[in-house]
Amino acid sequence: MFAVSIVPRTTSCRLSSAFLCQLSIPLTLRLHHHYQHHQPHLPSPLSFQIHSLRKQIDMAAQGGDSYEEALAALSSLITKRSRADKSNKEDRFELVFDYLKLLDLEEDILKMNVIHVAGTKGKGSTCTFTESIIRNYGFRTGLFTSPHLIDVRERFRLDGVDISEEKFLGYFWWCYNRLKERTNEEIPMPTYFRFLALLAFKIFAAEEVDAAILEVGLGGKFDATNAVQKPVVCGISSLGYDHMEILGDTLGKIAGEKAGIFKLGVPAFTVPQPDEAMRVLEEKASETEVNLEVVQPLTARLLSGQKLGLDGEHQYVNAGLAVSLASIWLQQIGKLEVPSRTQMSILPEKFIKGLATASLQGRAQVVPDQYTESRTSGDLVFYLDGAHSPESMEACAKWFSVAVKGDNQSGSSGHLVNGSAGSSHDKWSNETCEQILLFNCMSVRDPNLLLPHLKNMCAKYGVNFKKALFVPNMSVYHKVGTAADLPENDPQVDLSWQFTLQKVWESLVQSERDGEKDGESNGNSEVFTSLPMAIKCLRDTVHESSSATRFQVLVTGSLHLVGDVLRLIRK
């Protein structure tokens, strides 16, 4: 038998013939006398495939514009409906199965060895740890997470690396064009996240990954990733109050939605949860004959002196869940003998390496500003965490407080992540450091819940913000873009939400002043019309500082904001 692929006539096409073979195209312009793991799926009718392939090659051959065109096409799938619209919850979930049929992915998804993870906070980190462990055992992995911070390709990792632009374009246009031609009024084009989930299924099937690790986008029961009917194992990370306008206003209702990923007889793990949430998870597990096991946080002893690749004490909770998920997968699919946690004094070497080398942008990430380091005697360091729920705000505040104190005592920023150059200063005392908050959150979230948790936890650790800056996000929710097309400033921007955030912050500061005699807290805050203006102000402040001061900026409240900051400071 022969595997087939096509060599397009045009020389400007950016897709290689080897890659086009993975798109399962039944044309015999070139025959490879190799037959790999299984016969490529050969969709029909042939005429449609030829037409679809030609369109795909034409799109991919357009050079530098094709990626921008793909992002524009993807943006067209974003609905203008408010996040608080309750119809977002179910929204004809059955359509997902129609799309899988149109893309001929029904059989592929049944064969996929999936680890499925839902939760309010920590699910992305859990997925990242899990993928890293399995990859360190030599298995081919696919990881689907959300949201992306800078580039949409971050959502699709193959063997721990973001999918290449070439592969992304090929798979994107294959799915998009096929759906565009086969959908109709009854079965319309999928919405943004559903398309991305379908794209992940296509990528992982074509790339023949051994393990597909899927992070739920929102909720669980009606999430597009829940099209997987027989995962290997499911996980529920820490639950809390978020997306209440869609998932419900109690922990019980939220837990019920998350437990929607439970499948008949499929093992599941969760972490310690509030009583109300745990009761519902146990009820749902019983209904679906799921053996639900509660996993305790990992301990430092099990890591044999190594540190987790993702910083923060809360990551030990996520790492513990990841170890259990990876263990089940390795036992059932990898056919490996993995001892249980109770039998181990330390984790197996490959587990430790996987946990220590895991990486995920925007979660407890520290980035020194190289622009100021090379130009001033002062120092500007960004501490980025996309926390956006009350519980994650507390975890973020605790991480930030411990991190800034540790950085100040260690005397140099050279140890900070991302391989950034260290500061030229040998030592920073607490007296020469100032903490600044850079904040924004979506308007569906309650700042009266978020900001007090953040401020009070920092104060508990002796960290008080010298100033708070409130900015609108640069990226917009109705368009998928790149760093190149971010606006520097928008004179028409509506800042009413930012002024609301400032008002909440000032009221917290005022009440603190009323209760304190020493007046240590500083209520200095400001609203900026754009993020670039806020970054410029911070850099100017460092430059104009008369003394060598380290400015430590906590960026939080929104993963979109974190992504925008990363785009700007890495330009």
Automatic annotation (TrEMBL):
EC number in record: 6.3.2.17
Cofactor: a monovalent cation
Signal sequence, start to end: none
InterPro entries on file: Folylpolyglutamate_synth (IPR001645), Folylpolyglutamate_synth_CS (IPR018109), Folylpolyglutamate_synth_euk (IPR023600), Mur-like_cat_sf (IPR036565), Mur_ligase_C_dom_sf (IPR036615)
Gene Ontology biological process terms from the UniProt entry: one-carbon metabolic process
Residues binding Mg(2+), per UniProt: S146, E215, H243
Entry's family note: Belongs to the folylpolyglutamate synthase family.
Name listed for the protein in its UniProt record: Folylpolyglutamate synthase
Known role: Catalyzes conversion of folates to polyglutamate derivatives allowing concentration of folate compounds in the cell and the intracellular retention of these cofactors, which are important substrates for most of the folate-dependent enzymes that are involved in one-carbon transfer reactions involved in purine, pyrimidine and amino acid synthesis.
Pathway where this protein functions: Cofactor biosynthesis; tetrahydrofolylpolyglutamate biosynthesis
UniProtKB keywords: ATP-binding, Ligase, Magnesium, Metal-binding, Nucleotide-binding, One-carbon metabolism
UniProt key word Chaperone: no
Gene3D superfamilies in the cross-refs: Mur ligase, C-terminal domain (3.90.190.20), Mur-like, catalytic domain (3.40.1190.10)
Species: Arabidopsis thaliana x Arabidopsis arenosa
